[in-house]
Amino acid sequence: MKQEIKRTFLMLLDREIRNLPVMIYEPRVPGGKSHIGIVLQHSDDNYFEFMPALELAARGYTVAVSYFPDPTISLDRKLMHVGRVTDYLKNYPGVDRIVLLGHSGGATLMSAYQAVAEKGCGVFQGPEKVIAMEDPGTLQAADGVMFLDANLGNGVMTLLSLDPAVENEEKGVGRNPELDLYSPANGFGAESCSHSDAFIRRYVGAQGKRMNGLIRYARERVRAISEGEGNFLDDEPMIIPGGSQIKPYNKLFPLYPERFFAHTKKKWMLLRCDGTREERIVPCLRTAFRGQDKTDCYLASTLTTTVKRFLSSAAVCVNEDFGYDESGIYGVNWDSSYCTGPGNAKYISAPMLLMGMTGSYEYIAAEQIYERAVEAKDKTLVFVEGAGHNFTPAEEAEKYSGEFGDTAARCFDFVDEWLTKRF
């Protein structure tokens, strides 16, 4: 039974973190679940009034939601902000347990936070990393983590969004026509696409080469800065044409829902539309999404960042065998970066809940994070049939209106069940 929600807005202030906005959602009448505090935050977006906060507070939990007033800060710095919110919630009246909730790119943020809180930032400072994490200080580990429809991480989503046809990193025009995804000569069509296997191999291989080239460039500029030979003393701008990772600019895989990320590798629990639960290979129900060819438009699809922020927040090395197929992605050097959920998951031992939404094009990440979470002895992976990325029904995939039912209720009822059993 849902409860009436109380909202409290505040600003957290100290010398390191100024004007950090926080909204506390809680049941107006505290109950037996109010002692469980949930920290919800995305890596970039503002999640005030986002569904998970409302649904979980209505089920009796105390939820703290924040966002970064300056979205351009590095992932390292963002961990400090999450730590400040976590400390505040842990000392909130009645709260004695903390659970992190990462949705979409928020799973990158929360998995990095928990890994550092449990193991220290040294795990992200080894020579295998494209850049060493700056020490965010002592972070308080959460009692559990939940990753709901996580993506593969900001590094991988940038990789999958890179336009490999770019030949000159200083401009988005004058691209290589042989790698133009949107050219009819290469298989693109307004109604359906038919890119050949040979084109896809060239295209994906060129994506990997471009990512590795960008990393080499950024690392060289960081080295120059550290040796006093940079263009600035602290950091340098970096402009990446066709590098935006947001959905309209994701490239190849959204075109072919039956060809890429179409089903899980193993059998997992599926929360069915009729209320039953079934163990099965879980199919993705998403429909094709054609995206936009905007590489030549600076304001549309260019990733505007800095060399240090790119390495910490948007980069991951790939191997020569990099690619993806119907059940996942391979050839990614997960250990090279701390801006991917699968890369961070192996350092987390706290109880972990992973949920994939089968109407979402990001749903396959849940299985890959689960596979990498080798230290988490208590881990659960389930999928919600017909749910879109933001938990509501993926109506574009329904055969008839209402086919998928109340996907949000199925999702958050299960989250409630998982939390109640553990805390």
Note down, in words, how this protein is organized.
With about 425 residues, the chain is an alpha/beta fold. The chain contains 10 helices and 14 strands. The chain folds into 2 domains: about 5-150 and about 335-420, 3-Layer(aba) Sandwich (Rossmann fold), CATH 3.40.50; about 155-260 and about 295-335, no CATH class. The strands form 3 sheets. Strands 1-2-4-3-5-6-13-14-8-9 form a 10-stranded mixed beta sheet, with helices on both faces. The protein has a two-stranded antiparallel sheet with strand order 7-10. A two-stranded antiparallel sheet has the order 11-12. Helix 2 packs across helix 3 (about 105-120) and helix 5 (about 195-225) packs across helix 7.
Concise overview:
The chain is an alpha/beta fold. It has ten helices and 14 strands.
Topology, element by element:
Blueprint: E1 5-12, E2 20-27, E3 36-40, H1 51-58, E4 62-66, H2 75-90, E5 97-103, H3 106-119, E6 144-148, H4 154-161, H5 197-226, E7 237-240, E8 263-271, E9 277-283, H6 298-301, E10 303-306, H7 307-313, E11 318-325, E12 328-332, H8 341-345, E13 352-357, H9 365-372, E14 379-384, H10 407-422
Parallel strand pairs: 3-4, 3-5, 5-6, 6-13, 8-14, 13-14
Antiparallel strand pairs: 1-2, 2-4, 7-10, 8-9, 11-12
Any idea what the shape is?
globular
Structural class: alpha/beta
CATH class descriptor name of the largest domain: Alpha Beta
Largest β-sheet summary: 10 strands, mixed
How many structurally independent domains? 2
CATH arch. level architecture of the largest domain? 3-Layer(aba) Sandwich
Unreliable spans are: none
Q: Roughly how many Å is the radius of gyration? A: 21 Å
Q: Give the end-to-end Cα distance, rounded to a whole number of Å.
A: 19 Å
Instruction: State the helicity in percent bands.
Output: 25-40%
Beta-strand residue percentage: 15-25%
The CATH superfamily of the largest domain turns out to be Alpha/Beta hydrolase fold, catalytic domain
| Number of helices, where a helix is a run of at least 4 consecutive DSSP H or I residues | 10
Q: If you average the pLDDT, what whole number results?
A: 95
- In the sheet with the most strands, the strands line up as 1-2-4-3-5-6-13-14-8-9
Q: Give the assembly state of these chains.
A: single chain
Order of helices and strands: EEEHEHEHEHHEEEHEHEEHEHEH
Instruction: Report the count of strand segments.
Output: 14
